[in-house]
Amino acid sequence: MGSLFRRSFGTAVLGSVLALTAALVGAGTSAAQPPLLLPPLLSPPAADAIFPVADPDPFYIQPADVADHAPGEVLKIRQLPPSYYFPGSAMWELLFRTTDSEGRPIAANTTYVLPPNHVPDGPLVSYQHIINSLGNKCKIVTELYTTDPLHQIREAAGLNIALARGWAVALPDHLGPRMAYGAAKLGGQITLDGIRAVQQVPELQVQNSKVGLGGYSGGGMATAWAAALAPSYAPELNIVGAAEGGTPMNLVKMAEALGTNPHPAFGLAMAAALGLEREYPDRIDVSGQLNDQGRWMKQMIGNGCTNEIMLFGIGRSASQMTDNKNFMDDPEAWKVMEENSLELYPGVPTAPIFEWHSPTDALIPVDSIDTTLRRYCDAGTPVQTLLTPTPDHLSAAALGLPQGLDWMDARFRGDPAPSTC
């Protein structure tokens, strides 16, 4: 029974995460469009490597006594060299205690940026970048210092708008130490504990700061989860608002709409399946259900960043990765998706919400955004929604961000939050 359970669950996850990851990256190509070129399939290695490959930097080694520390407690801190992304700002990195999706103590990291015009206890923003990766080499803090153009974080430069206003910025690696891509609730917990951590260090000058949250798409998912979890998980934080855009709020609906056709963003779908397996090892077995093509794919992307993952997955499908054809048939798979779906999470943010998306975004269930925000409104949370005049997922990101920053500035000033409820 256990073997059958794991087999059907693994294939269910392989199929169900495809719709989720297409939304997380904003792939705009039709799933029915055949690719012009596929990377060749190679013979799989004789034995699977262990993923993710450990970061060689000893800073990330989890202390043996991590369970003895409270969530958000600082385990290690170091000052980083200046980053060319943020001219004139001082940089730190913190390792802190947090909790994974199954309640186990783990260590995670956040990068802290302090602009020269910040005043003590001035505003603090935790911004959750889109990471979409499986390898430790793809952490935000690593990519902030790389000179490899394939691994640079181009959207990071936009944070200089916030830094110019004197806001300190925290950039959590919200996929955690296992690079558990696809585990949305985990991202919320890491985000909140990262805020707790930077507020514990007097030298960082944010001990009593008002806090704002921000992020789009996959980063918006970590942001939205942090806002929803805060009243129960970190009620002491003075979160004055959350600006979240293009947020996937129901993974179940996305899985139901999936299908088994080849997809240009399948690499990220496979990455999410492997990420969920890392986060829920006692509930998900993907690796054990892979055929030769699936094992090859895992080897190619198991420590990869977005570009490698996208390349090796172009035009492939979940049905090619396993010989088990019984997709989407295991109740436990749906339960994991439900546990990571904001629409199905009963908690409600108490901080005001600014939310933006394209009303014709085909990559995420827009009706789930509407339903979730309506529930927040009914509970008394101020919600301002911006529908961007753009048809797709990616362009909405840039169109909503300036208004989101202005909205956040008003929250820091203490102005009453507007609402379109």
UniProtKB/TrEMBL annotation:
Gene3D superfamilies: 1.10.260.130, alpha/beta hydrolase. SUPFAM superfamilies: alpha/beta-Hydrolases (SSF53474). It comes from the Bacteria. This is Putative lipase. Pfam families: LIP. One of its GO terms (biological process) is lipid catabolic process. GO terms for molecular function: triacylglycerol lipase activity.
